[in-house]
Amino acid sequence: MVNTGSFGIELNRPGTARLRAAFFSVWFVDLVATVLFFTVPYAYEINPVTVFLYDLFGIAGVVFAALIYASFVVLIGYVLSTPLDIAFVATIVGMYALFASNNVVLLVSREPLLAPIVP
Fold first, then answer.
1. Looking at the keywords, is Membrane present (predicted)?
2. HSE-up of 81 (CA within 13 Å, CB side)?
3. pTM score, whole prediction
4. N or C: which end of the chain has fewer CB within 10 A?
């Protein structure tokens, strides 16, 4: 479906409805896990933008940061042409799935799936 924006630019929704639903599902799981990072003593967030916004606004800053990230993904998906937007959103879904899985495992077991490489 092609929409014409207020500036006369034609925008098409990125990917299929199922792909967009998958993105928002894993994004939401990652958001919940990130919020929980700020409530448990054994896990911490390493994203400096999220930490900065948390310091400014508390938990609302974490949600705001997550909304900013989702907005960037959606806007980039709208601008890309059809084959590229599907590949882009699918890649982001895969990355969010990996990050969210790691975050959930870290919160449940106190051990991450992906341990940082420290020389």
1. yes
2. 1
3. 0.75
4. C
